[in-house]
Design goal:
4-stranded antiparallel beta sheet; 41% helix
């Protein structure tokens, strides 16, 4: 009966558009709690304070819901079959992580999970709860335990069928469902994902310092981005796919079906010139229904200004200069940095006037220390 139930659930999941499904018992994978404790003890979470606040619930599924007996892990493929490293656009365009070039995956997946959970409850009775990565669930270790893939040396889930490109969701249930075997680690001696990181965010295989990760810096970090990371960011303005895209297992990845998670044209390597001109209303309109909208206009334009400073394109100067007087200190500071790199003589001419009216100490520091950190 348990096997028949799992087969039915798998069929229902496929009909809803999920590409893969596995089941594990609702107990924590070995070492998961200890790994989280070590990560937090070193402060590697940076601004992501919710990780520490919810740590005890994250360590064990039954700490989140004691009645849970089985966890159904589901994956939805978002790979498009392209070599993202080989097709990266020129410096005058911004690079957005492939997952964010679509409608917000939280909305797409959560709706599907709720539909499937309702069907599971009708089949098996008992209770069900659905979770995506906004909940205090460590879905990657659980997905590895369920056999969807394994956590690679870059800490992300790798699948033999779908490479690095799976959105994950979980359904907790009080029903007892036969568990699948855990996937073994297939990374071997490969360390391409570690070596390709532009900011050296990996402290060791399977260990990451989020505070150095471009994805963290461009998405989660609320403050100014430290000078030592800016050049390395290049034109990455939202997320970074390098350690995912270089994985050799991607050669086995299947392309996602277009109707399921289509890339939005306006998010596919947009020109920096368009992004630098965004005010809050235009930002909200352009990025409606996407994960980018949650970051907010100021942080996003901060990122675009770093990309502009790295671009070396003089035609961006007229778009950077007005941002020296933007309402946001995050924007003003990076406008200073970008202008000093793109047009140092113009920056020198404006320096005294801008300093005279500038009240934010971080922005003043950018004027005083220049684009490369030299005191002026």
């Amino acid at each position: 009966m348990a096997q028949a139930l799992k087969s039915i659930i798998a069929e229902r999941a496929k009909s809803l558009g999920f590409d893969t499904m596995r089941v594990t018992a609702a107990n924590a994978p070995a070492g998961m709690g200890e790994a989280l404790d070590a990560f937090l003890a070193e402060g590697r979470e940076g601004d992501m304070g919710w990780l520490k606040e919810t740590a005890e619930r994250r360590k064990a599924p039954r700490a989140l819901w004691p009645e849970a007996r089985s966890i159904i892990l589901l994956g939805l493929n978002y790979g498009d079959g392209k070599d993202l490293l080989a097709t990266r656009p020129g410096p005058a365009r911004g690079v957005i992580s492939i997952y964010a070039k679509r409608d917000d995956y939280h909305d797409v997946i959560k709706g599907k999970l709720k539909q499937l959970a309702g069907q599971i409850q009708a089949l098996a009775g008992g209770g069900v709860k659905v979770f995506i990565d906004t909940a205090p669930v460590m879905e990657k270790p659980l997905a590895a335990k369920a056999g969807l893939g394994w956590q690679g040396k870059n800490t992300t889930l790798v699948s033999r069928e779908f490479g690095s490109w799976l959105f994950l969701g979980a359904i907790f249930t009080t029903a007892e469902i036969e568990a699948d075997a855990e996937e073994v680690d297939h990374c071997g001696v490969c360390r391409l994902c570690l070596d390709v990181c532009p900011t050296d965010a990996f402290t060791a295989p399977y260990q990451i310092d989020a505070r150095k990760c471009v994805s963290y810096l461009t998405i989660e970090h609320k403050g100014h981005i430290a000078p030592e990371f800016r050049e390395a960011m290049g034109n990455r303005i939202y997320g970074c796919d390098d350690c995912l895209a270089i994985c050799p297992w991607n050669k086995f990845a299947k392309s996602s079906r277009e109707l399921k998670l289509a890339v939005r044209a306006e998010l596919d390597d947009p020109p920096l010139a368009e992004l630098l001109a965004l005010d809050d209303a235009a930002f909200r309109t352009r990025f409606r229904k996407t994960p980018i909208k949650r970051t907010g206009r100021d942080r996003f334009v901060r990122n675009a200004l770093i990309a502009a400073g790295n671009a070396g394109e003089p035609e961006l100067v007229p778009l950077v200069e007005p941002l020296l007087r933007d309402a946001s200190p995050l924007v003003r500071a990076m406008a200073v940095w970008a202008l000093q790199r793109l047009a140092p003589e113009r920056a020198s001419a404006l320096r005294a006037g801008c300093l005279a009216s500038e009240t934010d100490e971080d922005v003043r520091a950018e004027w005083k220390f220049g684009a490369r950190g030299e005191a002026r």
